[in-house]
Amino acid sequence: MTLELTELFIAQAKLDAHIQTQHNVDYASTRLKRILALLVELGEMINETRVFKFWSKKGPSEKAIILDEYADGIHFLLSLGLDIASSKRLYTIEPLSSDLVGQILNVYQAVIQFYQQPTIASFEEAFSLYLACIPLLGFTPEEVTEGYFKKLGVNYTRQQTNY
Question: d(Cα 152, Cα 90) in Å, to the nearest integer?
């Protein structure tokens, strides 16, 4: 299974340029905040799955809610990839772990590695591991792409309404 991200990177570049103009910021001044935002969004997404809540009998949120949270992470990863000039656009989706908990821990570790050493290689590893969550979450690459563009519209609306 693969995911081609060219259209998403183009769309994200436009959103980033809009935000940078509106808020008088650039990639360098926001990199650490975007890395932290990615970690927060990862936590919000996994919280909606409830996969780690062994003490609770309540099930996961609706698939659409989880996808919306997952799309938030895609936004920040695309933005970080643009920031460091990653040119990789085609990713093979291969989980390192057979369970979502282990895979998410791998993603957290990779994002922290990217924070510590912001290289193209560390970015691509983090993005690859995040995308590898797709089958473990029960999504298809097409659903993720649709979820990204749906959230993109929300993000533009938020910019227009002083969110």
Answer: 20
CATH architecture of 2-156: Orthogonal Bundle (1.10)
pLDDT tens by residue, 69-109: 999 999 999 999 999 999 999 999 988 888 999 999 999 99
pTM over 0.90? The answer is: yes
CA-closest candidate to residue 82, choices 39, 19, 133, 1: 19
50 is written with which tokens?
């409830």
Q: For the residues of 64-118, what is the DSSP string, one character each?
A: HHHHHHHHHHHHHHHHHHHHTT----EEE---SSSSHHHHHHHHHHHHHHHHHS-
Tokens for 124? Answer: 């691509």
List of residues 6+ apart from 127 with CB closer than 8 A: 77, 81, 86, 88, 91
Q: Is 60 within 8 Å of 50 (Cβ atoms)? A: yes
Q: Which residues in the chain land under pLDDT 70?
A: none
Handedness of CA 8, 2, 74, 80 (dihedral sign): negative
What six digits make up the tokens of 42?
């990862």
Domains of the chain, by residue range, sit at: 2-156
